[in-house]
Design goal:
mainly alpha; 10 helices; 76% helix; globular; GPCR_Rhodpsn_7TM
């Protein structure tokens, strides 16, 4: 039963994610690359593409219940779901902080001065992600416990180390705190916009732009926070080994984070012209 849930989620994510990446790639060719929002969307396309490439291996394992690709590649595929989640979160935060800057500084838009600045900023974020992800893959995954070569995604024995617990608790606190701050700021921004508007509020582009920004916060809340809240329970119980299904539950909550790949699919479903307008609305009021 649990394998059916995992297979269903990842098939939906793979199908919708690939469609969204392909369609959005064509749209981005015609957009202003100096825009901060466009740069963030380009990076979202890149990280979604990288993660989607690992999903077929997950599906093979869930179908066959036998891992044949070696433990090193198992570590890579396992790390990728976390790498995708946190890097996607960083790009969402990048977009949302930019929106806050535009709102409170009363600017029309935020752009890089040169394409080189956009490339440098994106590179810095990727280097930060890779420099933290690779050490986790090589030093924390599968080095403490004993795991069978024909199984994968079962590294729960690593949580017996206090350092692993500390890092996980720190990430949980940071994710929840940043999300709470961004949610509060964007609710305040929406209420302030509604207060100063007259007539039918839904007809105003400024309000629609704020609600689109709030949509990114909702993706974080619905896709990322459930995994982090369950992670608290998981860390506390995994060392007891009293629930054989605990690791399966953890995989299901991790699969929910992959649903964030459908953000580009939502962009594609609304059509090119509409989303060019929507992306423009994210970068200016």
């Amino acid at each position: 039963m649990w394998n059916v849930i995992l297979i269903t989620i990842y098939i939906v994510v793979l199908t919708g994610g690939v469609c969204g990446v392909i369609h959005m790639s064509f749209l981005l060719v015609k957009m202003n690359t100096l825009s901060v929002t466009t740069t963030a969307i380009i990076n979202l396309v890149a990280i979604h593409t990288l993660f989607l490439g690992t999903i077929p291996f997950r599906l093979y394992y869930y179908f066959r219940k036998n891992w044949i690709f070696g433990q090193l590649f198992c570590k890579f595929v396992s790390v990728m779901v976390h790498f995708h989640m946190y890097l996607t979160f960083l790009f969402y935060v990048f977009i949302l902080v930019t929106r806050c800057f535009v709102f409170f500084q009363r600017k029309d838009k935020v752009e890089f001065y040169r394409n080189l600045h956009a490339v440098a900023t994106s590179t810095a974020v990727w280097v930060l992600g890779i420099s933290t992800g690779l050490p986790v893959m090589f030093f924390w995954y599968g080095n403490t416990g004993k795991y069978e070569n024909n199984t994968c995604f079962e590294f729960q024995q690593e949580f017996e180390k206090d350092s692993v617990k500390t890092v996980n608790y720190t990430l949980i606190i940071l994710m929840v705190a940043v999300t709470g701050i961004l949610l509060g700021l964007h609710i305040f921004m929406v209420l302030k916009v509604v207060k100063k508007l007259s007539g039918p509020v839904w007809s105003h582009q400024e309000l629609r732009a704020q609600l689109k920004s709030l949509g990114f916060v909702m993706v974080i809340i619905l896709c990322f926070l459930p995994h982090h809240f369950f992670r608290i329970y998981y860390i506390q119980r995994v060392s007891d080994r009293c629930d054989p299904q605990l690791n399966t539950y953890n995989e299901i909550f991790l699969s929910i984070t992959a649903i964030s790949c459908l953000d580009l699919f939502a962009f594609a479903m609304t059509g090119g012209k509409t989303w060019r307008q929507n992306l423009t609305a994210l970068s200016c009021c």
